[in-house]
């Protein structure tokens, strides 16, 4: 599995930046499908929980420096993705922050990709000097406009720099039926010409609010057009829009700030022209082959318009109302402009693809192993979320898929028992259950960065099994324990279908009867809790007889679920010291615990003297 960290201005509910992120993640998932390779994507975001929910990826709070450092240290490729991150028009702090990330990634020996960025403006000679010395560390650089391309060449970088285009050109709009549904509540008469206006607050503005209000009034009153205000950054744009509307005589339409980028892109089908202050409002218009007029607040607007042979109708701190209106009428009435926009947009889409071709090449040259061999036992290189996803995917299989959770004790036992080692290696998925396995992995060819405990994996599957109406069977533990575990699970997951339970204390003669009970229950998922070795041997022996789709060994999980055994406190779990908690609460496990120091000594011996 390859680990990728994506950095950008994400989590701020900015439609343009979220459009870039959506395209990046969709393309990475497409690469996963085509190459049959697992990618673990981590996004640095100011709202990590929201980003995780929307895109189904891991996310780290970009304001928590230590968390950012850990994420970059774990990655294979660091992508500084989209937008205009390298500029100090807004502040020096932002420029230094993103440069620090690149420096850190190279310090850890990671590949760095500056991905379709708009570069500049960078003010003050010392900022330019810092930027030059750090940006030249990047392995791949693509920029989205000619001005950024020229700026980097003037700095005389030796890096290969490719001219691309903004990734948002590759965003796919939602379907027309979805657009109709989204616009139902607004009752916009689309038989009339409809002008979309995208504004933003800017510190240098003078009487911009009054002028935009005047333009909107003239378009409604004199021309008979619909005017629709479109927020591109949530409540921040809504505040500015409300300021403008308070100074208008006529009532325009205002779209909701909650639309996703692909929904907003689809809505752009309904407009005849966009008047935009935000770059991505112009990109969305061109993507949908709509006419547009730009009002500039930043050189990136000028750079974009230049690629279409256009100039800004004005600047936020100085523009003439009549000039903007003339630009609107010219764009609406000039017959040749439509074809010109279409032709240039085709070229922009082709250029945007170039960055992804380079990214695909970078991914293919980054070699990662799918599994590692720790003392003869296969451990799959997989993190918690990927393990969970794989288990859910197993539910679609036609034959039973087996998941084992090898820990240090199991690996050490396999050193004395070749048959048990063979059984462990026969599974469809072996997750690293234990901090000792994670620690040892760095000496065996692929550093694992988190343990995936059987109990946590099992519990994380419950909500998904509940949603999918999958049938669950609990097998193992002493008589009565599985029943208590079922009761407690149903308190937490009321709609979970637990189709059967059975204790693990049955004889060899009763084995076929137990298998028949499980099969007759039509269970999709079988959790087997018979303890180390016994449960793996039972699963191996009976796999072909069982009709389940997912079979997982879960050790003492039913004892914990029933309340018979307490799990280690969260602090011990986070520190990877559950084994120590078990030792102090169950001292009779001392002999079993000796496996850990023996394991450490064997691993260190291999590290120092070689061999396996």
UniProtKB/TrEMBL annotation:
InterPro entries: Polysacch_pyruvyl_Trfase (IPR007345), Polysacch_pyruvyl_Trfase_CsaB (IPR019896), TagA_TarA (IPR034714), WecG_TagA_CpsF (IPR004629). The keyword tRNA processing does not apply. It is an enzyme of class 2 (transferase). Its EC number is 2.4.1.187. Signal peptide: none annotated. NCBIfam families: S_layer_CsaB, wecG_tagA_cpsF. This is N-acetylglucosaminyldiphosphoundecaprenol N-acetyl-beta-D-mannosaminyltransferase. It comes from Caldicellulosiruptor kronotskyensis (strain DSM 18902 / VKM B-2412 / 2002).
